């Protein structure tokens, strides 16, 4: 029986890398995104790998759209083995001036969205006897720059949602974990019309103990690991994947 992965924000950036990595690993892939052009490109690439792909334009904060997406997944594939909650947005600006509507929108997509998608996926996983859910959080859940309140709050909430869901869904054979990426370069993982070649300075590289900026493939590999058979004893955890950036003390000269 073929396994099925569902990926939100799955058509560009980290999400695109995740979608293609699961296809390469033998999964059929159901991707949700708000960019139709990018989604259609992704499906073509998945099919070139010999796997089945399905794409829907979905606002993950809208319950009706999420329900529709999972109805189609159930009709097309009959199951879902892995859900990767990757979709996310940010709204910057001073917290003294940030419109409350912007704050609410970030939480709606970044936190409400994963809850809605997880609830639908968990219903399918419960019937089939188990599955794996991975939330893509951020190192911003653990540390901050100025003017990132909305984004940081949403990602911090996502880590709390991770351990809460792990406890609630464990009895059904569903594992729930999170990944907190650091600086991940995504310019070369956009749709063709927006794709550019990234350039990084020596200082950019040296901020990371591993000597380079992160790549979407780094996060995709971790998703496969968390959803694999070798991590059956792992749930409620948060993997920080940042090249060591958050453990390195940096002093400005």
Short description:
The protein is an alpha/beta fold and 253 residues long. It contains 7 helices and 7 strands.
Describe the sheet with the most strands.
7 strands, parallel
- Identify the CATH class: Alpha Beta
CATH topology: Rossmann fold
State the distance separating the first and last CA atoms. Answer: 58 Å
Low-confidence stretches at least 5 residues in length (pLDDT < 50)? none
Radius of gyration: 18 Å
Q: Walk across the major sheet and give the strand order.
A: 3-2-1-4-5-6-7
SSE succession? EHEHEHEHEHEHHE
Which secondary-structure class do the elements indicate?
Answer: alpha/beta
Roughly what fraction of the amino acids lie in strands?
A: 15-25%
Q: Total domains, how many?
A: 1
Mean pLDDT equals: 94
**CATH level-4 homologous superfamily:** NAD(P)-binding Rossmann-like Domain
Helical content band: 40-55%
Structure in words:
- The protein contains 7 helices and 7 strands.
- It is of the alpha/beta class.
- It has a single domain, classed as NAD(P)-binding Rossmann-like Domain (Rossmann fold, 3-Layer(aba) Sandwich), CATH 3.40.50.720.
- Helix 1 packs across helix 7.
- The longest helix is centred in the middle third of the chain and has 29 residues.
- 43% of the residues are buried.
- The mean pLDDT is 94.
């Amino acid at each position: 029986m073929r396994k099925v992965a569902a990926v939100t924000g799955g058509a560009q950036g980290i999400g695109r890398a995740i979608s293609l990595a699961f296809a390469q690993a033998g999964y059929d892939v159901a991707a949700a995104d708000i960019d139709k052009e990018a989604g259609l490109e992704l499906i073509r690439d998945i099919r070139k790998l010999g796997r089945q792909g399905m794409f829907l334009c979905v606002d993950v904060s809208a319950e009706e759209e999420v329900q529709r997406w999972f109805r189609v997944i159930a009709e097309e594939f009959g199951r879902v083995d892995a859900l990767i909650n990757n979709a996310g947005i940010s709204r910057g600006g001073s917290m003294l001036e940030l419109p409350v509507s912007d704050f609410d929108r970030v939480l709606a997509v970044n936190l409400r969205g994963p809850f809605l998608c997880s609830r639908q996926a968990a219903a399918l996983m419960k019937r089939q006897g188990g599955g794996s859910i991975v939330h893509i959080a951020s190192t911003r859940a653990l540390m901050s720059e100025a003017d990132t309140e909305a984004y940081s709050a949403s990602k911090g909430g996502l880590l709390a949602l991770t351990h809460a869901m792990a406890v609630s869904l464990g009895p059904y054979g569903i594992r729930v974990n999170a990944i907190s990426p650091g600086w991940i370069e995504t310019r070369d993982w956009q749709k063709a019309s927006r794709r550019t070649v990234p350039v990084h300075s020596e200082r950019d590289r040296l901020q990371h103990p591993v000597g380079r900026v992160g790549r979407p493939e780094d996060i995709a590999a971790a998703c496969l690991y968390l959803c694999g058979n070798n991590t059956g004893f792992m749930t409620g955890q948060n993997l920080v994947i940042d090249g060591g950036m958050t453990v390195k003390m940096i002093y400005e000269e």
